[in-house]
Write a structure and sequence with these properties.
The protein has 197 residues and is mostly helical. The chain is built from 7 helices and 3 strands.
Length: 197
């Protein structure tokens, strides 16, 4: 009698795999590609693994699948018009699935994601830009609402001058006698309320 199959699935394996690949890259072990990046005279070289780059970037996948056998174990790829810091952040993202960048670099990271056809980074940048935009819109809405409430409270005494005058007329000034109608109040001015002691 055969038993039913069961699923063995590791939640930590993908993270462990990424961490191990990242450590191998940082140490330069088993790297089989050198990416040379140059932007406005600033140049740097990065070693990486073809399999990781190809799995995360359609640009690199096309490059590696179409390259002819070269005369060495390591391939070279040249990227122009990509800033060194941006490519370093790109590499960190593809090897760790996260990277910390300044807010003003998010747009540049989106551009490099599109240039290198990295869908995960592109989606991450879009989500972050959306959150940033929603945050700005919320701040603007709160600011607008606080401005409106300040304007209303500042304008409130001027909006209803009659009710203010009536309220003041209902109170007797200490040194000034007030003439009151003895029978029947006029419809425009309500009869003053009696004060309870």
């Amino acid at each position: 009698m055969e038993s039913a199959p069961v699923l063995l699935e590791s939640k930590s394996s993908p993270i462990n795999l990424l961490n191990e690949m990242h450590q191998l890259r940082l140490l330069g072990h088993l790297c089989d590609v050198t990416v040379s990046v140059e932007y406005q005279g600033v140049r740097a070289e990065f070693v990486a693994h073809k399999a990781v780059l190809a799995a995360t970037s359609k640009f690199f996948k096309e490059v590696f699948l179409n390259e002819k056998a070269v005369d060495g174990p390591r391939s070279n790829v040249f990227l122009n018009e990509v800033q060194v810091a941006d490519f370093a952040s790109f590499l960190e993202f593809v090897y760790t699935a996260k990277v910390e960048v300044e807010e003003d670099r998010v747009q540049r990271m989106l551009e490099i994601a599109e240039k290198l056809k990295c869908l995960d980074l592109s989606e991450t940048c879009f989500q972050l830009k959306k959150q940033m935009l929603e945050s700005v819109l919320l701040e603007l809405q709160n600011f607008s609402e606080s401005q409106n409430s300040e304007e209303e409270s500042a304008a409130h005494p001027n909006v209803l001058p009659e009710s203010r005058a009536v309220a003041e007329a209902g109170q007797d000034p200490p040194d000034c006698p007030v003439a009151r109608p003895s029978h029947g109040a006029s419809p425009e001015v309500p009869a003053p309320k009696s004060k309870e002691k």
